Amino acid sequence: MQALLRTMQRLHAARSVQFVQVGEAAPGLAFRGEAQDLFEMLGNLLDNAGKWASSQVQLGVQRDGDLLCFTVDDDGPGIPPAERQRIFERGERLDEQRPGAGLGLDIVRELAQTYGGSVQADSAPLGGLRMRLCLPEATRPASH
User: What value does the mean pLDDT of the chain take?
Assistant: First the structure.
């Protein structure tokens, strides 16, 4: 995760957006799927947040039952609740002034659904948008 955050930090360096991991991930958390798919999903969410953030993007992860739930929060302007579902549609862009083709969030949604997971948009504690990506956790070995 730290490598991905460092990459995003470099990509958004011109705007001085800080990318930080919040909280300590519980030991033994593991995604049940391809690592490159996880990095594709998180990379899209972090990059999108970086485009909109005023100064900070936060990445968190926690276990929720048998799911790993990642949160990507930004301190940007956010999106009104009525518009939040539209951002997941292929080619949909709420602001044509920002770079992008409108494919990233659709890719995240499709990959998440492929794994039996989900992604949703909500309000972030920082004031901007929170993207919550929940994916199946790898089966933990039974303790003896």
Answer: 87
User: What Rg value do the Cα atoms of the chain yield, rounded?
Assistant: 15
Distances (CA, A) of 14 to 18, 88, 134: 11, 27, 31
For every residue of 84-116, which 3-state class applies, written as one string? CCHHHCCCCCCCCCCCCCCCHHHHHHHHHHHCC
β 56-64/18-21 pair status: parallel
Coil, helix or strand at residue 101: coil
Q: Give the total residue count for the chain.
A: 144
**Does the pLDDT at position 41 exceed 70?**
yes
Quick one: angle between helices 35-52 and 2-11, nearest 10?
Answer: 40
